[in-house]
Amino acid sequence: MNILERYHAMEYGPAPEARNEADAWLAGRDFSKALFIDGAWKAAASGKTFDTSEPSSGKLLAKVSDAGAADIDAAVAAAAKALPKWSASSGYARAKVLYAIGRAMQRHQRLFAVLESIDNGKPIRESRDIDVPLAIRHFIHHAGWAQTLEKDFPDHKPVGVVGQVIPWNFPLLMLAWKIAPALAAGCAVVLKPAEFTPLTAILFAEICERAGVPKGVVNIVQGGPEAGAAIVNHTGVQKIAFTGSSEVGKIIRKATAGSGKKLSLELGGKSAFIVFEDADLDSAVEGLVDGIWFNQGQVCCAGSRLLVQEGIAEAFIAKVKVRMSRLRVGSPLDKNTDIGPLVDRTQLDRVKGLIAEGAKQGAFCWQPDSALPTTGYYHLPTLATGVSPANILAEEEVFGPVLATMSFRNTEEAIELANNTRYGLAASVWSENVNLALHVAPQLKAGVVWVNGTNMFDAACGFGGYRESGFGREGGREGMFEYLAAKLPVGSVIKPAAAGSAQPVEQADGTAIDRTAKLFIGGKQVRPDGNYSLAVATAKGKLAGEVGLGSRKDIRDAVAAARACKAWPDATAFNRSQVLYYFAENLSGRAEEFAARLVQLTGVTAKAAREEVEQSIERLFLYAGLADKFEGRVHQPPARVVTLALHEPAGVVGIVAPDNQPLLGFVSLMAPALAMGNTVVAVPSERHPLLATDLYQVIEYSDIPAGAINIVTGRSAELAGVLAKHDDVDGLWVFADAETCAKAEADSIGNLKRVWTGNGRSLDWGSNEAAGEAFLRRAIEVKNVWVPYGD
Ligand code: NAD
User: Fold this and answer.
1) CA of residue 167 to ligand 1 center, whole Å
2) Distance 320 CA to ligand 1 centre (A)
3) Helix, strand or coil for residue 216?
4) Are 712 and 571 in contact (CB under 8 A)?
5) Radius of gyration over alpha carbons of the chain, in Å?
6) Smallest Cα–Cα separation from 382: which of 396, 364, 406?
7) How far apart are CA 662 and CA 416, in angstroms?
8) What is the pLDDT of residues 701-720, one digit of tens each?
């Protein structure tokens, strides 16, 4: 046999990772006391436990304490007790603790990796080289944020006690993504790992004991959905950070509505993997393997929809099949294994069920002819072709090793197909033409876009989704904001408008020409669909005029007009800036008239009215100036890649403005949304809508494109509800009574739009703090575009 023949005959031998340390760790613990509360190990008050077993064999690993409501109470109480001292400790003190955690994890890196692979089933190469190192980097990176908190996040304070609920697919990494920023921000946490994978969180709690984390600052409670729900509903928790399925995310959105809890949701995805015909196909195949078969496809951002350009589709799929037949399915503790078992039998059954349904709907599902181990929850990598966009495999998150394939003809079609999903977590774009890739990336509705790469993550770069993939970001500067509360100038309590109360009114004196303000939709003044009007009173209870009584249909038209307006989001930031300056200039030309209107409608003094108009003009000026300054950043993660953290408009933003300071409040909400390139559907103050309708003419001659601002007058509570339920509204800001705010949050679950409410209070719009970055941040999505470089 010559060398070449020997080389070709070479077989992979087994390369097992030793597990004796992990087995000794497992044998040395009493898992019936696995709740880490107030720095001590406790059994569940009920004495209950649940089983965690090994996916590669089905064997029982441990019986772990199963927390109930009483245990969650104890954990929240411990966190609340620890919070004041921890949040008041110096940034340096917190930085030292975070650093100590990171270093201690480094010392036990291998044990973490082996335990993770045993408990979750992921190949040791992944836990050893990706999950654990990234988790460690997260803690060390966030030590820096702890120390620079006051300088980098002025006007913010820690949000308080944080409840965190995580899934089983990246047990340690998700824990790190949650706990590191929370500790850096000065919060105390109660974290619940997923019931399939409790082990590395227990080892992490032991690390906390050794790394000097003060008692009660980190509490880790084990259990299932009930324990999760007890955290979510606990009144002692000020923020919920959840990672998991969109289904549970929606339950949590609803459960926390009206509670005032801050919320971030990192949910599922159906991410596109787009291969253009000029891509380096061999690299793209390798990328695809990583994109969909990493962690058996149990990855929220898995590239589970392959979109490949028509001309190369056949050749590319052929290459993919060859590569698939070389994937090694086997023990997670074998260093040669590419594909381990799924986490549990339920997950295996779910994946099989979805494949069967996809096939029934016309997909052709191909699998390599590889042998599966005889025990454990293994599933072969699967390629589905002939998939129509409506096939279940193209629409649903499978969360398993299944790739759905479609082809496209040109760039527009690729973008359209990629965005044809209710999710919006990630996307990969493969092309040797960086111009094309950077042309496509901003058009993809996804929080993360990888150019010629996939599954790149870093502690410095935010990660999170659009649409039903949730809201909020983890990692980086934007991730820190999730654990901080902005100090906004809270104003008066907003009372609900009396039901059905037509306002006033004594007749007007008949000297003025009768004028009825219409709605303003798509750049035109239009009659309300229902042809009803609402009487508007002066401060003295006389009839000041009438406005259209907007309805569901009017909101629908306004949203359609806002969506159709491309000129505003596509305009350059400088262009938007100039238009907003011009708007301010034109309002200034009519300052006296608006001041008189304010006096007439609200009864404020002439001086106060002039001041409100002046402040409104000033605010427009401010956002005109900020339109081209609140920009993204460039990150340099520890790899040959730059990450562009772009600020994109959220999209169509609904605004429900309050009655107090009706001009300034309206402008203070509308201007930042516009400055960032959003189009707006605004419901002005229900009591004083004439101030907004008087703005039509100013808007009309300020060069604002048709559809960028739409104004629908009417009943705030009703219209807020319509906006909340509308699935083409991306963001909703509501300053109304508490019930309307709560309902808006609860009703937003259709598309999981970003809702910001005042929780039944207004803001003091005249205060300087009622303007600036805190508002702009709510008007954008941060999209991280990863661009590798080098050969
Ligand atoms: P899941 O939603 O079933 O469970 C997630 C966690 O929520 C678990 O800890 C579970 O015990 C808990 N839980 C379940 N019901 C609950 C309830 N009603 N109230 C409170 N807590 C509850 O999800 P899963 O099956 O564990 O994980 C898979 C999902 O996670 C996938 O959809 C995946 O895309 C998503 N995920 C998202 C990201 C991201 O960053 N976007 C990362 C990883 C996983």
Assistant:
1) 4
2) 30
3) coil
4) no
5) 28
6) 364
7) 40
8) 999 999 999 999 999 999 99
Q: Is the CB of 268 under 6 A from ligand 1?
A: yes
User: Is the CB of 67 inside a 6 Å radius of any atom of ligand 1?
Assistant: no
Smallest CA-to-CA distance from 735 within 549, 523, 490, 394 is with: 490
Residue 513 clears pLDDT 90, i.e. is over it: no
Q: Which of 179, 193, 779, 771 shows the shortest CA–CA distance to 479?
A: 179
Which residue, judged by its Cα, is nearest atom 12 of ligand 1?
225
CA separation for the pair 14, 334 (Å, rounded): 7
Angle value at C-alpha 377, between 371 and 383, nearest 5 degrees? 60
What are the φ and ψ backbone dihedral angles of 400, each rounded to 5 degrees? -160, 180
Alpha-carbon distance values, 388 to 317, 391, 409, 444 (Å): 17, 5, 15, 20
The contacts of residue 631 (CB under 8 Å, 6+ apart) are 573, 647
Distance separating alpha carbons of residues 726 and 567, to the nearest angstrom: 22
List residues bridging with 329 in a β-sheet.
Answer: 339
Using the structure block, give the residue that is written with the tokens 């064997």: 59
* pLDDT score of 507: 61
Give the position, in ligand 1's atom list, of the atom nearest the Cα of 244: 30
Q: Which residues contact 556 (CB under 8 A, 6 or more apart)?
A: 722, 726
Instruction: Say which residue the tokens 């037509």 belong to.
Output: 502
CA angle 769, 161, 481 (to 5 degrees): 40
Token code pair at residue 279: 């891509």
6 CA distance to ligand 1 centroid (A)?
A: 48
Contacts of 394 (CB under 8 A, 6+ apart): 270, 305, 387, 388, 404, 406
Q: What are the CA-CA distances from residue 291 to residues 15, 274, 411, 456, 507 (Å)?
A: 24, 11, 21, 10, 69
**For residue 12, what pLDDT is reported?**
76
Phi, psi (degrees; rounded to nearest 5) at 517 = -75, 135
Return the number of other C-beta atoms located less than 10 Å from residue 84's C-beta. 11
| Residues 55, 122: Cα–Cα separation, whole Å | 9
Instruction: Please tell me which residue in 126, 195, 266, 745 is annotated as part of the active site.
Output: 266
DSSP class of residue 131 equals: I
Structure confidence at residue 497 as a pLDDT band (50, 70, 90): confident
The beta-strand segments (E) located in 412-564 are: 426-430, 448-451, 470-471, 484-486, 490-493, 516-517, 519-521, 524-526, 533-537, 543-548
